[in-house]
Amino acid sequence: MSPLPKRWRVFDQIGSTNDSIHAAAAAGEPEGTVHVAHEQIGGRGRLGRTWWSPPGSGLWMSVLLRPKIPAENAAGLSLLAGLAVKNGLRELLPRSISLYWPNDVYADSSRKLGGVLCEIRGTGTPDYWISCGVGLNIDLRSADIPLELRGRIADLAELGCEERNPIALGSRIVEAFWPLYERFQSGVALPDLVTAADLAHVGERVRVDRSSGGGETLRGVVAGLGKRGELLVRDRSGKIHEVLAGDVTYEEASGRD
Ligand code: BT5
Q: Is the pTM of this model over 0.90?
């Protein structure tokens, strides 16, 4: 059986559960420690973005991972966590939701339901940990949705999910994650765990902004996943590029980031 987390801690209000997991990790807490908050007032996404986490409306959860694989191979864990969200919710939803590289879960092609933020800290293998944060909108009906998110987000309630308890939903996701995580650590390549059928965007046109690394914008079509979880993008000349970082925009759905 998978070592399901025994250590769940629930906060009423917190800055970010990713931060509290980092603090717990620094204090020596074991792998599998899980923090869930009713509300986050400093929830964050990637690249300094804000993650809106209103009270009682979603699952705001972080899991402490202490992977045994080299830190440079751990980037794929974010996508594995996204797959765990998709798989963990499968039985609760009338139709499946969409997973987009590197960390997004969408209700349909343009409305975001949730996201994953894996942050790595420490001094390198084996002395590192990951705070794996999952944000998932459960029921936003009583929340005042910020203007910039209106029409761009979705929640589980509208998709017909009757389970609204964040702990129950979080448990399903962690349960779905653990076997994937163990197989990944035992050497199974990421594309064998996250297949083309799991990804919503294979064949879609994509634009990758690589300006933060000093590179030019790349345009092409998603060809699949590389061994370490990199996005493979085929440009017009047929050349395959490996995208490890960078801001990806799927051009068939312009509202996405
Ligand atoms: C993500 O970032 O999608 C990762 C989100 C991870 C949130 C969890 S909650 C528990 C843990 N603690 C944290 O502080 N974070 C993690 P990214 O791909 O950068 O997407 C961020 C973008 O999503 C924002 O710029 C908004 O456009 C949009 N967004 C913000 N809040 C949202 C929400 N509640 N639902 C849907 N979209 C949202």
A: yes
